[in-house]
Amino acid sequence: MQLTDRHREYWRKNLRMTALLLAIWFLVTYVVSYFARELNEFTVLGFPLGFYMGAQGSLVVYVLIIWFYARYMNRLDHQYGVHEGGRD
C-alpha cells in the first residue's frame, strides 16, 4: 500500500502529539519523583508539592493526557476524513 502525502501528514501530526504527551508523562512520572525533596518546599492545597504529585497530582495529569489525546485525535480524524462512524 502506497501512502499519500496526506497520510504522511496525518501520521506526522499523530506521532508529534504522541511524543509530546509521552514527554509530559516522563516529566510527571520520573523527573518530579527525582526532585521530590526540592519540590516539597512548595505547597499545593496544604500538602508539599512532591508528596502531592506522588499521591494525586500525577494521576490527575495522566487523566488529562488521555482526555486531551482522545479529543485531539477525534479532531484530527475528522479533519483527515478517517473517523469511524458513531458518536462525534
TrEMBL record:
It comes from Azospira oryzae. It comes from the Bacteria. Residues 8-83 form the Sodium symporter small subunit domain. NCBIfam families: Na_symport_sm. This is Solute:sodium symporter small subunit. The chain crosses the membrane at residues 20-37, 49-70. Keywords: Membrane, Transmembrane, Transmembrane helix.
